[in-house]
Design goal:
alpha/beta, about 20% strand, 12-stranded mixed beta sheet
């Protein structure tokens, strides 16, 4: 049943090796995960990089980029962030490459006009909507998610400032999912221009819906066409490709009303006046206006921008899944697939605690239990056994999903902000509870004397909540569970894993929690690895009938035959 030995980092690394390595293909560098997904006909979503290099300040840009990729994965598709790195076209970026791009100071905006220049000069570049469409189409990716597209600038009758995004939509067969046209532009003229270019413009919503205005859901202009579900959008794009029209499609996704920016129009008018006074034109005007709006709205425009991109990623992932199904089967999928029920088999799931840890080391030899103050050192860090394991797996290159619970407080916010490399979309946040904390008291040799934990919030990782995530659990290659979650929740995870033949790794966390899975009737069917320390192993052994420990725990440390006998008895008793 169990393999009571450490699996080692080499085994875990195999799960992530395909994500960490990339290979050349013609002029492009594909991440292996993206290349394999395209080759296998799996759903892939292209993501632009100008929003990273020019659209948001650091670190909001890297946090947004990681979150958007996570949302696309959550919907069952493979994210492919597109960028120019030292003169090479990259389709899919590693987390290190994303971080480097977010901090890059010399990246230029790359549209059709600048592409050969950036490649020839070996430059770094963030691809615009037009630039991303060109590369995505060449790579065979037909769904592309962005925040908002460029358009006809106000005063274009004099300046002739019209975004190349519009002409690209008229000649490149890629669906662009956006929150409409950036509201700093002339939306009415943009819609007229798109009609002239033969672009199918739709909005997600009921018939008669208005086209969205980026920061707000309603531009005041009626949408030319509408789709009511992601499935309908995918069906229209499939028809576009079958007809070989060689033109794109624009899907407007209104920002949710609760995320819309308020009073944005006054700020836009002010920023436009300042741009005119400072004679800011051409490629510099959009970055200037976005930055100035963020200042004028005291960050509200940036918050809305992030919210709408995340919402677009969710819808785009669903469209890509439906389009992949349509293109592979040439038949209409079940209606329920419009919500993207078919999930791609993905990385490991870790279920467990997320803590804010304090470690107190007493430097003195004699500890007095009389209220005296002792000399020592205090350190704090982000902990929790489940979170720590998820962190390690993600750093090995796996797409790791964490199921945990935190409070809507500073410790919880800090923990999640440092988990950009982990998919935390399944972590529950509670406004009325505190994030778990753990304090360990060490003696001067570093041995833990005792610990104090405030971990009530972990009881919220309930069986009921986990039942809503069964689709996520059943697609995992393996699941890690720590002893912080309720016993009933552990039983449910073991039952699901036994049903779907998924390996389970159980980390006991402490002597009191080590015995939790032993009461489950599903233990022997799914638990393949348990990692107790000596005291945790003895705590588990104490549940055995007529068990008597031979010798002290210190003596057992070196008595391998005795430890093996305890392990054998546990396996015989529980599975």
């Amino acid at each position: 049943m169990w393999e009571l030995c450490k699996l080692g980092s080499a085994k875990f690394a195999r799960y992530g090796s395909s994500l960490r390595h990339s290979r050349k293909f013609h002029n492009f560098t594909y991440s292996r995960g993206v290349k394999e997904a395209i080759a296998n006909g799996e759903p892939v979503v292209a993501l632009e990089s100008t929003i990273i290099t020019h659209g948001m300040p650091y670190p909001a840009n890297i946090q947004m980029a990681r979150k958007v990729e996570s949302i696309v994965r959550r919907e069952g598709a493979v994210p492919a962030t597109i960028a120019i790195v030292k003169g090479n076209i990259h389709v899919g970026l590693s987390d290190e490459e994303l971080e480097s791009l977010a901090e890059c100071q010399d990246a230029i905006k790359v549209s059709r006009a600048e592409m050969s220049y950036a490649l020839g000069r070996k430059m770094n570049g963030g691809t615009t909507v037009a630039g991303t469409m060109i590369i995505a189409n060449r790579a065979g990716i037909k769904v592309f998610v962005t925040g908002g597209i460029g358009g006809v600038h106000r005063g274009a009758n004099i300046s002739m400032d019209i975004s190349a995004d519009l002409t690209e939509l008229g000649r490149t067969p890629v669906m662009v999912v956006s929150a409409g046209v950036k509201s700093i532009l002339d939306i009415g003229l943009t819609l007229e221009y798109l009609e002239t270019m033969g672009v199918c413009v739709t909005t997600l919503g009921e018939k008669g819906i208005h086209f969205p205005a980026f920061y707000t859901p309603d531009s005041g202009f009626r949408s030319p066409l509408n789709v009511e579900t992601p499935l309908e959008a995918a069906q229209i794009m499939a028809s576009n490709l079958q007809l070989n029209l060689n033109s794109g499609m624009l899907v407007g996704v209104p920002i949710p009303r609760e995320n819309a920016a308020t009073g944005i129009q006054d700020a836009i008018d002010c920023a436009l006046r300042e741009a005119e006074e400072q004679n800011i034109k051409g490629k510099q005007i959009t970055p200037f206006l976005l930055a100035r709006l963020n200042e004028l709205t005291e960050g509200e425009s940036l918050r809305a921008n992030i919210a709408l991109v995340e919402n677009n990623a969710r819808v785009g992932g669903q469209i890509a899944c439906n389009l992949a199904t349509l293109m592979s089967s040439n038949s209409e999928p079940d209606k329920k697939s419009s919500s993207s029920n078919s999930k791609r088999k993905d990385g490991p799931v870790v279920i467990g605690g997320s803590n804010f840890d304090f470690v107190v080391k007493v430097n003195e030899t004699d500890i007095e239990m009389n209220g005296a103050t002792h000399n020592g050192k205090l350190q704090y860090s982000h902990g929790g056994v489940g979170r720590s394991i998820a962190d390690a797996l993600a750093r090995l290159g796996n797409h790791t999903r964490l199921i945990s619970a935190v409070g809507n407080d500073n410790p919880g916010t800090n923990i999640l902000s440092e988990c950009g490399h982990i998919d935390t979309s399944l972590v529950k946040k509670f406004a009325d509870q505190s994030t778990a904390t753990y304090t360990a008291i060490l003696d001067n040799s570093g041995e833990c004397i005792f610990g104090v934990g405030d971990m009530d919030i972990h009881s919220q990782i309930t069986r009921e909540y986990l039942t809503t995530l069964e689709d996520d659990l059943c697609e995992a290659p393996f699941i890690v569970v720590d002893g912080n979650i309720p016993e009933d929740s552990i039983d449910y995870v073991l039952s699901v894993c036994g049903k779907y033949d998924i390996p389970v790794l159980y980390e006991p966390t402490c002597v009191r929690k080590a015995v939790k899975p032993l009461s489950s009737s599903h233990l022997g069917k799914s638990a393949t690895y348990i990692s107790p320390n000596l005291n945790e192993l003895l705590s588990m052994a104490a549940t055995l009938p007529n068990f008597q420990m031979k010798g002290t725990s210190s003596e057992l440390k070196t008595d391998k035959p005795a430890l093996a006998q305890i392990s054998i008895r546990l396996m015989e008793e529980y599975g």
